[in-house]
Amino acid sequence: MSYLMNGVQVALPPSPTQPCGLGPPSPALRERVPSAARRVRVRRSGLLAAGLASALSTTAPPLAAETPKSGGTLTYMIPADAPPSLDGHRETTFATVHSAAPFYSVLIRVDPNNPSSTTEFVCDLCTAMPQPTEDGKTYTFKIRDHVKFHDGSPLTAADVAASWNAIIHPPEGVTSARESYFVMVNKVEAPDPATVVFHLKFATSAFLPALADPFAWIYKKEILERDPHWYEKNILGSGPFKFAGLETGQSIKGVRNPDYYIEGLPYLDGFTGIYAEKQAVRVEAIRADRAAMEFRGMPPASRDQLVKEPGDKIAVQESDWNCVNLVTPNHKKKPFDDVRVRRALTLAIDNWHDAPALAKIANVHTVGGIVFPGSPLAATKEELQTIAGFWPDVEKSRAEAQRLLKEAGAEGLKFELMNRNVDQPYKYVATWLIDEWSKIGFHVTQRVLPTGPFFEGLRNGTFDVTVDFNCQAVVNPLLDVGKFLPHSVYTENYGNYEDQKEIGLYQQLLHETDPAKQRALMREFEKYVLDTEAHMFMTPWWYRIIPYRSYVKGWKISPSHYLNQDLATIWLDK
Amino acid sequence: MYRYIIKRLLLVIPTLVGAAALVFLLMRLIPGDICVVRLGSGGGTFDERAVQACHAQLGLDRPMFLQFVDFVWGFFRGDFGISMWSGKPVLYEIAARFPVSLEIAIMAVVIANLIAIPLGTISALKQNSPIDLVIRVFSIAGLATPSFWLGILFILAILDISQAAFGSPWMPPIDYVPIWQDPLRNLSMVIFPALTVGYRTSAVTMRMTRSAMLEVLREDYIRTARAKGLVEHIIINRHALKNALLPVVTLIGIEAAFLIGGLVVTEQVFNLNGIGRLFVQSVQNQDYTMTQALVMLVVAAFVVTNTVVDLLYAWLDPRIRYG
Amino acid sequence: MTIAAPTTRTIPAIADDVPEFRRSVLRRAWIFCRRQPLGTFGMLIVVITAIAGLSADWIAPYSPTANDFAAMTEPPSWAHWLGTDQFGRDQLSRIIFGARTALIVGFSCAIVASVAGMVLGVGSAYFGGRLDLYLQGVLDVVMAFPLIIMALAVVAIFGTGVHNVIVAITIPLIPRCARVLRSSALAIREVPYIDAARACGFGHNRIILRHMVPNVMAPYLIMLTAFVGQAILAEASLSYLGLGVQEPVPAWGLMLQGGAEEYASTAPWIAIFPGLAIALTVFGFSLFGDSLRDALDPKLRDR
What we know:
Chain B is built from 13 helices and no strands. Helix content of chain B is about 80%, strand content about 0%. In chain C, helix 2 crosses helix 13 and helix 4 packs antiparallel against helix 5. At the A-B interface, strand 10, helix 7 and helix 14 of A face helix 2, helix 3, helix 5, helix 7 and helix 10 of B.
């Protein structure tokens, strides 16, 4: 395997007129890219970055000749206070993935060498990516030989099928967080110890990306049958690292699995994941080399601070993030049941002008529609500018908002914005939104809740308007935009509305197989959701910035902090 | 005297039960369903049956009164139940985090008293002199400065100074090792939070020492001692200090409360895996059992400490002992 | 008058025709200033903060919540005396408006807590008996909870925001006040004239208001000033934990949360000034309260 990493493209040093070190305009503002491969922007810190771009490309180590070194322990920060449980099937928080993904194998996953690709997936436990048969409704996977769980027992197709059944059809009393992603699956079976077959109800291009879910860990069938809750507090996998200890609230450790089925991997001897919810601590730890990196994403200010360090010690990778904050008005609360008021809410926001400024202080960046910018299904700038909230002339937009409010009799409206107690970017986005709304005469206060009560508030609909979010792992636009569907169809929609026309549009979209027609349908769906009915609306897409100690090699950034976390390909150049 | 002791000891029990009732009530008043919070915290879907199973597992479907009795009885037996957030025994979670907090608390108290008692004495001896002024300003600054701000400045200072001095920034270790395993590493981690918390604690003690000393120095027997011609430092050490320190002893009980408060915030700043941080997390996660247990432990420690201090005070002060 | 009568030299000439009572108060205040330089300094800080808070609308150069993306994280300059924060908001204006929030929180908590403490403490001391016992038991229980822990629990129940923060901080302060005032009141309770007054048929209210309350005024005032400082600090801590006042309300504790730590290395003025504001204000109140106690407590006066 060869590694494309450092030196793929070097961004220019920060200039006074251009936002800090952000390279060329992101894809959402360009013509759509035929292949969804994302470019990775890498920066070198300190002296080298002082305008010596050409010198950089010669001083960067030659790529093909870089041979991974074995050994060493990677210490990284996990930006959370320990996950509620270690069961990947049950949890949806990145804390679980960052803690325990290295211990497990999955069936298929994103390519560690090209994790940003939305269409290429590679096998982990299977031997080859299958072609669907029977009109695209059957997928047959062959499972590798000689795979062992960490306790020595062999892993067979039966374990794979049992794990997937636990995800898709969980038994009574067991929670599976991704049940709704697999409504297209009829059943999963293992006819022999080396074959797993998925039978779908209908063919759809959304299946394979869903199958590559980073939480879909393969558990031991025997344990699942004996105690389906065992994996919440215990770890037994077949992944590149063996569990070596969990100090509650403090750190999780793993050691190299000598029997790993991929020759030569993992390179590391072990890893230590340290839990630290405070961002300042994480930044300082990286600055003082107490830890090498974190895998979620840091705000621009932290990156700037780290990069200031003299010497060549910090490298940075950046990417658009498959996460975005949305604004969801509660359709059951007056006056947000009036589409004019909702449209006014979105028309007041100046996305184009403010996004570059926000990108300097928060981890947001790209203005985009409901589809991940850079995906073939995403809108171009011109297409976006026809939608409310994206008009090029913000004065016109705000005037229209005022007019709508006057018509609806809701001028000078006072309401409360519910938000989650997370700084980046939730609270930053809220501060920005509140100021924008004050420009059309709204008086908005904020109610900030810790994560748990926040979700409760969402579910119970006890809010006027809320900051919402849509965070997905693998970029899968057809499934990802399900967030905008009414609650009756998509349980994680909190807008409290019903809309049969929207559901109809979506069904058409989901079943359409011609790419051009699919794109046109997506545009129609997008305009309907964001403009015509203004059910929910967008804020700039998140932006993932990972500064790390430059001795860490072998890791590539992807649009999701859930992906590519098994650490098998990482090595330390020390 | 013995009646006083018995009475004092008996008072502990209703206070503890009252505190248990209060914390139980507070927890139940927090809006929201812990099971919903727990299962849906990542934003994932869950079904009603899982919620009901969770309720049954946690005993939330039983009548309130039974839950309370269980809680109090469990407390006296030392059984605090299972954490609703992590599913592990509460005692296990607390025990894992207790050493850090204890170490910081002890170091803070030691540092505080090492600073405060001498400074408070000097301040009293030289009342209204420039030294007195400086010491008073120093002590009030300790009370006025937000401890987390101090902590932030501390960390920054360490990083910047080490960078200037050694070329690369140094930061105290972020993972805890017990003191017997690696004393140097352990101490380098604990000293800074201990200083931050200790400064605030010392401020209180300093002021109390000063005012107690001032009172004692005006007593007639001190005047007599001076008139007799005793050397000043014998007067201070042998007569004044012993009597002045008596009220300071009672301060230990109040210091404990300041310490806990200081710990909660300081552990956030320095990212220490202690019970202060655990407390904030469990309140935010609505982890009833954990919060109840933690609060009860803190309250019990507070009550016991104060009782011991009261009794100690009664024993030490001959006026009460023989009065 | 318990103060040794100074000569009229110490009173400004213009006060010559001021009524006797006013002159004596001025005299006392002047003596206080001379004897307690620290206390005067503290009072000065308190007054400045109060003026800032009250006249914020007029003296603040910018609006505290107006984002200005053209001027993000600017160091102190003539346009922005204390610099701007990451949203481009003027720090000086935010600190001035923050004084208002701090004083509102501080005084609300202090006044409510001390009045409630007065009622409970004096009432408990006056009526004595079973009422005293049970009330003290309840207060003991509440006092066994450290302040921040109680405040956290209350915020968890009622939610965040200025009003809830005030409630959250007031509740733990009440028993502390009640305790102190009760011991002072107890001392007066034992004096014979209280019993005599009861024998004369005076109502409870009259006795309490006319005899007991004036005698606990000294510790009451001291507690009041101490509470303001404690309340401001408690609010800052709660906001730091993210559970206090919320954006975009300008409050000093809130300014120290999140952004301040993030920018502490690159833009230290964001973290330094709000912290300084808190420290100075609480410092001022503490100094003032200290000196008040020194002045009012006869035992500590220099002979």
